[in-house]
Structures are given as C-alpha cells and as structure tokens.
UniProtKB/TrEMBL annotation:
One Pfam family from the record: AAA_lid_14
Protein name listed in UniProt: Sigma 54-interacting transcriptional regulator
Domain Sigma-54 factor interaction: 133-346
Domain Response regulatory: 3-119
PANTHER family for this protein: TRANSCRIPTIONAL REGULATORY PROTEIN (PTHR32071)
Key words of the record: ATP-binding, Nucleotide-binding, Transcription, Transcription regulation
Length: 418
C-alpha cells in the first residue's frame, strides 16, 4: 500500500482524509506541524505522496516544497486550498512546487482521485520465510522426506541445485527440525566478504583462519549454513578442512552448492577430503523445468502472498499463462518464477493473468533445458517429451528443443512421429 503523508492543523480534516485514504487502499500518516512533517518525509518509501495544507503549524506547503528540494526529496506535494485564490494557487505551484490542489470544501470528492494521479505503485518485494513453499511433485515429496530423515541426525549435509531452486530454505528446514534448533544458526556466504578477518600476530595465524574459526566458536552446539561452497577458494578450503579435521568443533555444517561442485571435486579444484567431510548426506533439488507440475502451486502461493502484502484482490493465472510458464525453461528457477508472476500481477489490471501479461527475460546464461538436441541417440525421446510438455503445440515444442519449427517437422517425419 502506498504511503500518503497528510499535514494539516485541522484534526477533524486529518481524520476525514485518513479515513477516505484507508478505504481506498492507501496507508496514511497524519501530522500537524512542519517539524513532524520533516521527520516523516525522511521515512517515506518510494511511491509516496504528500498532502499539505497551505498553512499549518510552523510552516506552509510552499516552505515544505522548498525544504524537500534542498534535501533532495521529490515526493509530489498536493496542496489543500481554502479558496480558489488565483495568486495563492499560482504561488504554491510555481517553479516545480505543488503538483496539484484540492479544495478543502471538496476533500471528500477530490482527495482520492487526485492522490491516485501521483501515487506510484509500491514495489512489493516478497521475502520468503524459512518454511517450504507447498509443492506437489513427487521429487519434492522425496525432498521433504529427506529433510525429516536428515534432521534426526547430526550428519553434515550438502544440498545441490541450480541457482534459485530454494536450497537455503531446505537447509534451514533441516536446522529447524533438528535437535540443534535450540542453539544458534549462522549463515555464511562462501564467496562473500564474511570470511575475511583481522590478522592476529600473537597466534601467527592467518586472518582467514581466525575469522573461520570464530564462526565455529560462536556456533558451538549449533549449526552453520555455508552457502555456495563451490565458491570457496583453495586457501579457505584448506582452513575449513583443518578446523573440521583437527579441532572437531561441535557444529553441524549444512552446505549449499551448485552442481558444478562435483566437477570441481573430480578435477581436484575442490579438495575431495573436505568434500566428503561435508557431504555425509546430500539432497539434490531438481531445476524447475524438470518439475513443471510445481509451477501452478508455486505461482498460486506467490499471488496469495502478493495480495496479502498489498491489500489487493488476489489474481489468478488463466490456462494460457500456465501453459506459457510450463514451456519457459526458467534458468533462474523458483526465484525467476516469482519475479515473472509478481511483475504480471503488478502491471495487469485484470483479475486473470494471461500469457500476454507475462514478461520473460530476453537475456541470461545458456542453460541445459533438458530438451536441447545434442545427442542423436536421444533425439526421438526428447522430441516426444517436448511435445508432451507443450501439449502438442509445435511452436512451443520447437522452442523447448532450441530448434526452429521447420526443423522440428523434418525430425518428426524422420522418426515417424505424428
């Protein structure tokens, strides 16, 4: 909901305006003085609007506009005028002043409509909780079972999956369902700056060693979630291995990694002995394009959360939108699905979101869609799978296969496919 700051000396009019705005889905803040107005302007989020009386305690609408300019704020100011004095109106609106006016006697008729002209839709960011989002694929039911099984042990675990598949949520669920949930959980980004610390001349240890060791000491009896361990450089791997092998900290380590970690182990760019200490058990999270039956429940979850956070009516996906979502390969997986669905909900005026409302990224890394024709011995099976997923739509199937429609027809005839 967009914030609207109301500045007016009249308590009754502040209540009137607040009530009108709340009914229309806005989040009003009402103050009566310049001092309070300045404090609230500094706290306003993007997309907010200011409604100010021509005069109020300690200031005027024009003075507030001038203060905003000096401080670098650009919230649109709508002035409340007691009468249509042309000179006063011209003064408050000159040189980029107030963007519009409302007549005080007509507040009930003009306020909401005028605010609506300048309130920009608030960008709603969904911060996902630690709970798993409801899904219906058999693959995810197996993951839920693995979470319960692993949580009952103290084994270190690696969760494999592409970017955006929800690996950290799974890691947190293992922690929350374990006996260590009563102790701290520390989340560390392996490729971030958190593993850089201060050098300690007294111990003759490296700054990296001191920092990593300090995390284990603080998490004693608890859990460390180490995200993206494939980004650990060789020095950090060596320090982590030494601590785990020689100091035996009472800390469970749950890691997330992209599939490339397995290749790194075979190529010896990731230390195999560290890998096997960390991977006492593992979970593999499939990419979204391999579990398209999860797209509908995930989308419904995002739309429900969006409606709750914005106070707007819940939107739904029609058949064309669901079909388009299932065909798109989603290199960014669940995270990208969330962005696509929310962008459509944000910009679509209708209750139902159709395929034409969806906006897919035109750029991104090359991914193995699972269908791309590279191995001739697998071509027929992949063509059949693509046609099934596209529900017989040749254009969509060709897109999945990364070939043009005419090539698809040639290959269908080649393999005797109707």
């Amino acid at each position: 909901m967009n914030k609207v700051l109301i500045i007016d000396a009249s308590e009754s009019d502040r209540r009137l305006m607040s009530g009108l705005l709340v009914k229309s889905g806005y989040d009003p803040i009402a103050v009566d003085s310049m001092e309070a107005a300045k404090e609230k302007v500094a706290e306003l989020p993007p997309g907010a609007v200011v409604v100010a009386a021509m005069k109020f305690t300690g200031g005027t609408a024009q003075e507030l506009v001038n203060w905003q300019k000096r401080e670098g704020y650009k919230f649109p100011v709508i002035a409340i005028v007691d009468n249509l004095n042309p000179l006063e109106i011209a003064d408050v609106m000159k040189d980029g002043g107030a963007v519009n006016i409302i007549q005080r006697p007509a507040i009930d008729k003009q306020l909401v409509e005028t605010v609506g002209k300048y309130a920009k839709p608030e960008n709603v960011v969904l911060v996902l909780s630690d709970e798993l989002i409801p899904r219906q694929s058999e693959a995810f039911r197996r993951i839920e079972k693995s979470i319960r099984t692993i949580a009952g042990t103290n084994a270190n675990c690696i969760i494999f999956g592409e970017c955006g598949t929800g690996k950290e949520q799974i890691a947190r669920q293992i922690y929350l369902n374990s006996s260590r949930a009563q102790k701290p959980c520390t989340v560390i980004e392996a490729g971030g700056a958190a593993l850089v610390g201060q050098h300690d001349p007294a111990t003759m240890r490296s700054e990296m060693y001191n920092r990593i060791e300090s995390y284990f000491k603080k998490a004693d009896g608890g859990t460390i979630i180490l995200k993206n361990i494939h980004l650990l450089n060789f020095d950090k791997q060596s320090v982590l291995l030494h601590i785990l092998e020689n100091e035996h900290p009472d800390v469970r380590v749950i890691c997330t990694a992209e599939p490339e970690l397995l290749k790194m182990v075979s190529e010896k760019t990731f230390r195999p002995n560290l890998f096997y200490i960390l991977r006492q058990v593992d979970i593999a999270v499939p990419p979204l394009r391999e579990v398209t039956e999860d797209i509908a429940p995930l989308s419904e979850y995002f739309l429900a959360r969006y409606a709750h956070n914005t106070g707007r009516d819940r939107k739904r996906l029609d058949a064309s939108a669901l079909k388009a979502l299932k065909v798109y390969p989603f290199p960014g997986n669940v995270r990208e699905l969330k962005d696509v669905v929310l962008f459509a909900a944000f910009h679509t005026p209708n209750d139902a979101i159709s395929a034409s409302d969806l906006s897919f990224s035109q750029s991104g890394p090359e991914t193995d869609s699972g269908f791309k024709l590279q191995d001739p011995t697998m071509e027929k099976a992949k063509i059949i799978a693509a046609l099934e997923q596209a529900e017989g739509n040749k254009t969509m199937a060709a897109k999945l296969l990364k070939i043009d429609r005419s090539t698809l027809y040639v290959k269908m005839r080649q393999y005797g496919l109707k």
